[in-house]
Write a structure and sequence with these properties.
heterodimer, A: 329 residues, alpha/beta, Rossmann fold, seven-stranded parallel β-sheet, five-stranded parallel β-sheet, 8 helices, B: alpha/beta, 2 domains, two-stranded antiparallel ribbon, binds flavin-adenine dinucleotide
């Protein structure tokens, strides 16, 4: 019989991704209510020391697969290893973060296991018949689908920032199991030549708690520095509208919206953004929205919790000073 | 070089989503477009053909209206179209669809398979990767640069906070991310030519598939609770900024 909730943990340079901790926290809650166990699986090289953190974050069992071939994420090697682990463990559910790696890995793994996959979910609930149901945005958040499966394991990728992280409990213990990486040669056909990760002191857009975003109203790339100053005071990420990206002021990876990133931060501060339907699709589920726009009729005010009608070049630096005061208090 | 491009017809990004009487997404009166990410895939396929020779086959799944999308791709410069159209598709999810597409592709010579990295309607981002698995070939997701030499490709793929450079041998699947290229518009001559290009329609029975096998079941659809306009903060800029900071700390409690 299938049992347990398995979390595929993502780590880079021994840093566990925040979304993995969010999944462990939520899985712990569900496990406590349903009498299930939480199994964390972590792949990489030289990662033994992560086990206690995963135990403290809610895992009952930690499966560590340590191998040079797993040092960096690759579709083939990770699918090969996880397919076997999942068949051996037979969990009820397998959860991954909807990150670049999660998005790439989950469909491949699901196809190999012959199961369905609920991708990019923003909700998960206990279901009496099928163990779990998932809620996922479709049409970029203009609607939701609620889905479930009676095929095991039930698989889902969960959008970052969906669940809160429970503070770790250092006293929690977990059974730690080391498995060897059993990788089929057929799965090693794609060769990773290079990884270039730009060091950024700001959080990843999709994982950020606060996002400060600028649109066409920014008037030019040089002016983003005022948003960056604001962002750095409160530890925020910086985003952009498509108009700003198409003007070449910001790279596409900063674009928020239907054809950019979908984000759900606690606070989204939109500066010089009109609030087009495609932009709202990407940030409409933010907990709080602040709009700064000189046009009182701008659509963004129809969704903003707080709005200031005015010139952003005047307001943003003033806000930065106000935030500094708050942070220093 | 033989190239297969998967495309999907989706709602226009301007579309408002409403539910019909049976609680399903209502497609009535909605403008349909080629999924924007698939346009990058089509463009890349055509550019590869222009540079290395060969043929571009566009494959789509959907209702009969999806013919328009395939014709547009043919007008852009693809050579042949295949449309899998069958009421039974309603009862297939990503798992089954990948198997159906794998069957379609098996009959078409293919070195490179391209698709958009995500469809903006269901946003699932699964089919292309699942298809690669069904064909037991490698895939690279979210590609922003593709260089082909001989029977190998080097793809630059976007990851969180950076990029990866991946080398694969053909056949392989690539999913296109914005930035890969600038899709062309179909020319008038292209549109005329497209009318004469072959477009084959297939049913599930033609491909040897029977009744669908749903791995995931959609229990219901829902709409988000519309956001309400909140408070506009008036006053002098300095005063408004101070008031906003105060509200964010004391009322919203987010700072
Ligand atoms: C297929 C498709 C996909 C799309 N996908 C996306 C997407 O993913 N993301 C996205 O954002 N858009 C997307 N769009 C584009 C979208 O329709 C809008 O064009 C875009 O969001 C507008 O960006 P903006 O709000 O920055 O610019 P504008 O609409 O031009 O708004 C600029 C705003 O800045 C204000 N402003 C100007 N100067 C100042 C100042 N000094 N102080 C304060 N306010 C000022 C103006 O009042 C105005 O409201 C898409 C469109 C299509 C067709």
């Amino acid at each position: 019989m299938a049992k347990g909730i398995m979390i595929i943990v993502e780590q880079r340079n021994l840093q566990i991704r925040k979304v993995s901790l969010e999944l462990l926290s939520e899985a712990r809650k569900i496990a406590d209510q349903t009498g299930e166990s939480v199994v964390a699986v972590v792949l990489g090289q030289g990662i033994d020391e992560l086990a206690p953190t995963l135990a403290a974050s809610g895992a009952d069992k930690v499966i560590v697969i340590d191998d040079a071939k797993l040092a960096e994420y690759s579709t083939g090697a990770y699918t090969s290893v996880l397919n076997k682990i999942i068949r051996k463990e037979e969990p009820q559910a397998v959860l991954l973060g909807n990150t670049a790696a999660g998005k790439d890995l989950a469909p491949r793994l699901a196809q190999r296991l012959g199961v369905g996959l609920a991708s990019d979910c923003t909700g998960m609930e206990i279901d009496s018949a099928n163990f779990l149901t998932f809620k996922r945005p479709i049409y970029a958040g203009k609607a939701f689908a609620h889905l479930t499966s009676n095929v095991r394991p039930i698989m889902a990728t969960i959008r970052p920032n969906t669940f809160p992280v429970t503070p770790p409990d250092a006293a929690r213990q977990a059974e730690v199991v080391k498995e060897v990486a059993d990788i089929d040669a057929a799965d090693l056909t794609a060769i990773l030549k290079e990884v270039a990760v730009a060091a950024s002191k700001r959080p990843e857009l999709t994982e950020a708690n606060i996002i400060v975003s600028g649109g066409r109203g920014m008037k030019g790339p040089e002016n983003y520095s005022i948003l960056e100053d604001l962002a750095d005071v409160i530890g925020a990420a910086v985003g952009a509208s498509r108009a700003a990206v198409d003007s070449g002021w910001k790279e596409h990876k900063y674009q928020v919206g239907q054809t950019g990133k979908t984000v759900a931060p606690t606070l989204y501060i939109a500066c010089g953004i009109s609030g087009a339907i495609q932009h709202l699709a990407g940030m409409g589920s933010s907990k709080f929205i602040v709009a700064i726009n000189k046009d009182p009729e701008a659509n963004i005010f129809n969704v903003a919790d707080y709005g200031i009608v005015g010139d952003l070049f005047e307001i943003v630096p003033l806000l930065t000073e106000e935030f500094k005061k708050l942070v220093n208090e | 070089m033989n190239i297969v491009v998967f495309i999907k017809q989706t709602f226009d990004t301007e579309a408002k989503i409403v539910l019909d009487a049976s609680g399903k997404i209502d497609a009535n009166g909605v403008n349909l477009i080629i999924n924007p990410y698939d346009e990058y895939a089509i463009e890349e396929g055509i550019r590869l053909k222009e540079k290395h020779g060969g043929e571009v086959t566009v494959v789509s799944m959907g209702g009969s209206r999806a013919q328009e999308a395939v014709r547009t791709a043919l007008a852009m410069g693809a050579d042949k179209g295949v449309l899998v159209s069958d009421p039974g598709l309603e009862n297939t999810d990503e798992f089954g669809r990948a198997q159906i597409l794998a069957k379609v592709v098996a009959d078409i010579p293919h070195d490179i398979i391209l698709a958009g990295r995500i469809a903006i309607d269901d946003g699932a981002s699964q089919i292309a990767v699942r298809l690669a698995e069904a064909l037991s070939i490698p895939s690279v997701s979210s590609v922003i640069k593709l260089e082909v030499a001989g029977t190998q490709a080097t793809a630059t793929r976007e990851i969180d906070g950076g990029t990866e450079l991946i080398e694969v041998s053909f056949p392989a699947v690539f999913t296109a991310q914005k930035g890969l290229n600038d899709p062309r518009y179909p020319s008038v001559a292209g549109i005329m030519k497209a009318k004469k290009k072959p477009l084959k329609s297939l049913t599930l029975a033609d491909l040897g598939f029977g009744a669908g096998d749903l791995k995931m079941v959609i229990n219901q659809y829902s709409l988000p609770t519309p956001r309400k306009a909140g408070r506009k903060i008036d006053g002098e800029p300095a005063q408004a900024a101070s008031e906003l900071a105060k509200l964010l700390r004391e009322e919203a409690k987010v700072l």
